[in-house]
Amino acid sequence: MPVQMPDINLGLMLPEILVTLLAMVLLLLSAWYGKEGRGTIGWMSIFGIGLAALAVMASGGSGETTFGGMFVDDQFARYMKLLICIATALPLLISLTYVRDHKMDGGEYYVIILFSMLGGMLMISAGDFIMLYLGLELMSLSIYILAAFKRGDVKSSEAGLKYFILGSLASGVLLYGISLIYGSIGSVAFTDVAHFLANAHGHVSPVIGLGMVMIIGGLSFKIAAAPFHMWAPDVYEGAPTSITALMGVMPKVAAFAVLYRVLLIAFPAMHDQWGPLLQFMAVASMAVGSFAAIAQTNIKRMLAYSSIGHVGFLLIGLAAGTSDGLQSVLIYLTIYVFMSTGAFALVLILNQDGIGDNLTDYKGLAKKRPYLALLMATFMFSMGGIPPLAGFIGKLYVFMAAVKAGMITIAIVGVLFSAVGAFYYLRVVKYMYFDEAESPFSMEVSSTSQAVVVLSGVIMLIWGIFPGSLLEWTETSVRIFQ
Amino acid sequence: MLSLVTFLPLAGVLAIIIAARNNAHTARYIALIVSLATFVLSLRLLIDFDTSTAAFQFLEESAWLPAFGITYRMGVDGISLPFVLLTTFLTPLCILASWESIQKMVKEYMIAFLALESFVIGVFCALDFILFYILWEAMLIPMFLLIGVWGGPNRVYAALKFFLYTLAGSVLMLIAIIVLKNVGGTFSIPDLMNVPLDFTLQVWLFLGFFVSFAVKVPMWPFHTWLPDAHVEAPTGGSVILAGVLLKMGAYGFLRFSIPMLPDASRYFVPMIFGLSLVAIVYTALVALMQKDLKKLIAYSSVSHMGFVTIGLFSFNQQGLEGGILQMVNHGIVAGGLFLLVGVIYDRMHTREIAKFGGIVNVMPVYAVIFMLFTMAAVGLPGTNGFVGEFLILLGGFLANKGVAVVATTGLVLGAAYMLWLYKKVFFGIIQSEEVQALKDMNRRELAIFAPLIILIFWIGFYPGPFLEIMHASVEQLLKQSDTIKAGTAAIAMY
Questions:
Q1: Which of B65, B148, B172 has its CB closest to that of A434?
Q2: How far apart are CA A232 and CA A306, in angstroms?
Q3: Cβ contacts (< 8 Å) between B148 and chain A: which residues?
C-alpha cells in the first residue's frame, strides 16, 4: 500500500503563520528590550494583528482545504477571522495604558493574547474535531493565564484558577464527546460525520447522540451559555478589566464559529435533536442574563450576566438553523463585538484609582464627562435593544429568523426577556444622568481608548440606521452552509 | 416634504450642538425657531392636502434594506395628518413654556425635545412597519431623559416606570409585526391592509398589538405609569405626553388594528368597551380624590381617552370621527391645562390643591383662561370638547345603547372634579401670603395660550373643516374593515 502524503498548502494558512511568527519574535524581543520597550511591543502586536487581518482579506476564501481536510479556508472563515482580529485588536488598544498603570505590561502579556487569538483562528478554520480541540485548548490555556495575570491580586488569581478548573472539566467533556463520535463512526472529520449520518437514514445509535450533546456542552461552556455559565460572573469580575474586555468577545467569536461548523457541517442531519437543545439553552441564558443582572452592583458582573443574556439571543438564531438564522447570528455577533468592547472600554477608562467598578461610581457622570456619558448611554441603549441603535437591528433579525422558522414562542419569550433586560441597562443611564456625583474623581483618558469608544459608538449609530453593508457581508459568509 | 417636516427638528438638534456651545439662550432661540419653522412647513401640508381622497398623500419611498424587505416609506392620510399638525403645533408652545422654568442643562433639554418631536412626527408618517417601530421605540429615549433629568422629586422612579412599561408593551408588537410580514410578505402598511388573514391569527395579532397600544393610550388597567410620569415630568414634557404621546396608542388602533385585523377588532369590541367604561368611571372617581393638580389632570386624561377608545371601536362614521377629533381636542385642552398648572407651579413651586385658594383675586386673567379650559374639558357646548364627546356618544349609542348611557355618567363626574378643582383653587379667601404675592401672567405666557383658546372655540363652533380632513379616510377605513372580512370568508371556504 503506497503511503499517501497529505496535501499541504501552507498558503492557505498565511494569517495563522504570520501570527505565530509574530508572537515568537515578540517573545524574544521582550526579553531583549527589558522594561523600556514594552509599550512598543504592544503597538507591534496591534500592527501584527493588522497584518494578519490584511492576509485574511487577501485570502481567497475559496473553500479549499489543507492537511487532509483539517484546515478549511472559506468565506465563513474569512469573515470570522476578520471579526476575531477586530475582537482582539480593540481590547488591546484600550488596554495599552491600563496595563502600564497596573504594571502588567510584561511582553508576555501581548504574546499570550496573540497565542489565544491564534487558537481562535485555528478553531474557526477547523475541518475536523482534532483541529477544533487543538485550537480550543490553545485559546483557553492562554486565557486562563491572562485571567490570573494580576499576580498580586487575590481575586485575579482566584478567577484564573476557577476558570482553569472548570474549563478543563469542560474540555474533558468535549474530548469525551469527540471520542464517542470517533468510536462510532471511525473518523473525526466533520464531512465524514455528516456523510455517515446522511446514510444512516435516521437509524443513529444513541452513542452518537450522547457524543453530540457532550460536544455542544463543552462548547457552550466557552460561550458561557446557561446552564454552563456559572464561571462567567466570577471570572469577569476577578480578571483584569482589560482581559475581561477581551474575554467578553474574542472566545465567543471563535466558539460560535466552531458551533456553526459542528452543528451545520457535521450534524445537520440531527437538527431535530440539537435544535430543541439550543432553544432550551437560549431561554435559560436569557432568563439568567436578565434576572441575575438586576441584582448586581458591580458593573463587570453586570456585564458578565448581560453577555450571558446576549448569548441567549444568539443561540435563538443558531437553533433555527435556517440561512436567515445563521446570518442573524453573525450580524448580532458582529454588533456585539463593538457594543461590548465599547462598554468595557468605558469601564476601563473609569476604572482608575480603585473606583469605577461599582455601578454607583457612575453617579453624575453626565455632568462631569458629558460625552463619555453619552457614549455609555449609547452602548447601554444598544445592548437593551432600543432603536435606532445597532443592538436593535441584531435583535430584530434574530427574531425575524425565529418567527420565519416557526419558533414564535421562543421569539415571544425573547422579546419579553429583552424588556426585562432593559431595566438594568437603564439603571446605568439613571446613575449617569439622574443622580448627583458622590465623590469627585479625576479621569485621565488616553487617546487610544477614546478612539475605540468613539469608533464603537459611531458604529452603533451607523449600523442602527444603515446596516446594509453588514447584511451583505454576512450573507455571503453563511452561504457555505447551504 | 414629509421627510423635511419630520427631520427638520433633528437638523435643529445638530444646530444646537454646533451653535450653542454653552449658551442657554441661543439654544432656546434655535429650538423655538426650528419648531416654528416645522409648524409652518406642516401647515403647507394642510394646504396641499387633498381632502377628497382617502389615499396616502405626499408619498415618499426609497430603498433602505431591500434584503429584508424594509423600505423607507412615508405618507399621510386624513387620519394621520391631524396628529402631525397637533405635534408640530404643541411643540413650539412647550418650548415657550420651558423658557424660564428650565434652568439646568438647557441645551440638552432642547435637544431632547426636538429629537422627541422628530420621532413622533415620524411615527405618524411612517408607512413601513419597521420604520414605524423604530421611531415608536426611539421616542422613548428622549422622553425618558426629559422625565428623569428635568422632572420633579420622584422623577427617577417615574422615568423608569414609564420606559419599562411602554417597552414591555411594545416588544410584543414587534413579534406581531414580524408575523404579519411572514404572512403578508411585506412590511408596507398600506399593502398589509389588503392582506386577508384568518380569524385565529387575527385574534393573536390583535392581542400582540393591543398590549402595546393599550399601555400607550393608556387604557385601564395599564394606566398606572401615567399619573407618575405626568406628575414628575416638567411642564413641557407633560404637555407633549398628554397632547401627543397618548394619541400614538389610539393612532395604532386606527392605523393597524381596525383596518388590518377587522374581524378580531369587532370580536374584541366588548372587551374594549368594558375597559373603556371602567376607565371613564373609575378614573374619574379617582380624579375626584386627588390632592395634586397635575395628578388630577392626569387621571382625567385616562378618563377622556376612555371616550376616545369607545368612539374608535363603535365602527361607525360618527364614533370614529368623534374619536379622532376628541384626541385633537384632548391634546389642546389637556395640553393647555398642564401649561396652566406650569404657570402657577413656576410661581409657587407647589401643585398641592390645598395650598391655593382665592387666586382669582390676584390673577384675574389667569382665572379666566383656566375657566375656559375647564369648560372645554367638561365639554360645555360651544367648546371643542362638546363636539368630540357628542359625536362619540352618538356613535356609541348607535353601536351599543347601554355603553353610551354609562359613558355619559363620566361626563357628569368630569364636571364634578373639574368644577371642584376650580372652586378650591380660585375661589374662597386668600389663605397664604404666597398667594397674595402672586403676579398675573406675562406676555410670553399669554402668547402661549392665545392659539389654544382660538382653537377651542373654532372647533367648538365650526368643526366642519377639521372633520372634512378625515372624512374620506374614515369612510375608507370603514369600508376596509368590511371588505377584508369578505376576503377572510373566501379563505375559510376553500
A1: B148
A2: 11
A3: 430, 433-434
Grid coordinates given for A42: 504592544
Distance from CA of A400 to the nearest CA of B (A): 6
Find the chain A residues whose C-beta atoms sit closer than 8 A to any C-beta of B: 381, 386-388, 392, 396-397, 399-400, 403-404, 408, 411-412, 415-416, 418-419, 422-423, 426-427, 429-430, 433-435, 466-468, 471-472, 475
Ranges A184-193, B97-106, B117-126: which has the least confidence? B97-106
Q: Cis before residue A276, ω within 30 degrees of 0?
A: no
Shortest CA distance to A224 belongs to which of A156, A292, A274, A177? Answer: A292
pLDDT confidence of residue A169 = 93
CA distances from A395 to A313, A418, B33 (A): 7, 9, 38
Q: Is residue A140 scored above 80 in pLDDT?
A: yes
Q: If DSSP codes are grouped into helix, strand and coil, which group holds residue B151?
A: coil
**A458/A452 Cα distance (integer angstroms):** 10
Q: Is the preceding omega at residue B221 within 30 degrees of 0, hence cis?
A: yes
Output DSSP code: residue A358: B
CA angle B412, B233, B239 (to 5 degrees): 55
Closest residue by Cα to residue A140 from A165, A108, A176, A106 = A165
CA-angle at B101, arms to A438 and B441, nearest 5°:
155
Cell representation of residue B309: 377608545
Q: In chain B, how long is the greatest CA-to-CA distance? A: 79
Q: Which residue of B has its CA nearest to A384?
A: B167
CB B307 within 8 A of CB B410: yes
Q: Would you call B352 exposed, middle or buried from its count of C-beta atoms within 10 A (0-12, 13-18, 19+)?
A: exposed
Long-range CB pairs of B437-446 (<8 Å, 24+ gap) are: B437/B362, B438/B344, B438/B347, B438/B348, B438/B359, B438/B362, B438/B363, B439/B347, B439/B362, B439/B363, B440/B362, B440/B363, B440/B364, B440/B365, B440/B366, B441/B343, B441/B363, B441/B365, B441/B366, B441/B369, B444/B96, B444/B99, B445/B343, B446/B365
How many interchain CB pairs under 8 A, A with B? 81
Query: What is the ipTM score, two decimals?
Result: 0.86
Tell me phi and psi for residue B475, to 5 degrees: -60, -45
> For chain A, how long is the longest CA-to-CA vector?
80
Identify the CA nearest to A455 among candidates A444, A447, A465. A447
Boundaries of every domain in chain B: 268-462
* Cβ burial, residue B437 (10 Å; 0-12/13-18/19+): exposed
CB of A130 within 8 A of CB of A182? no
Q: Distance between CA atoms of B184 and B257, rounded to whole angstroms?
A: 15
Name the percent of chain B lying above pLDDT 90.
7
Cell of B276: 373603556
pLDDT in tens, B468-492: 888 888 888 888 777 655 455 444 4
**Helix, strand, or coil (residue A238):** helix
**CB proximity list for A358: less than 8 A, separation 6 or greater:** A297, A298, A299
For residue range A394-419, list pLDDT tens digits in order. 999 999 999 988 888 899 999 999 98
- Please indicate whether, in this complex, the C-beta atoms of B137 and A386 are within 8 angstroms of each other: yes
Contacts of B65 in chain A (CB under 8 A): 467-468, 471
CA distances from B121 to A473, B4, B93, B128 (A): 33, 11, 16, 14
Q: Find, among A180, A429, A410, A149, the residue nearest to B178 by Cα.
A: A410
Q: Which of B246, B216, B321, B247 is nearest to B83 (CA)?
A: B247
pLDDT tens digit sequence for B380-421:
888 888 888 888 888 888 888 888 888 888 888 888 888 888
Domains of chain A by residue range: 269-482
Residues of B in contact with A433 (CB under 8 A): 145, 148-149
Q: Is A153 helix (H, G, I), strand (E, B) or coil?
A: coil
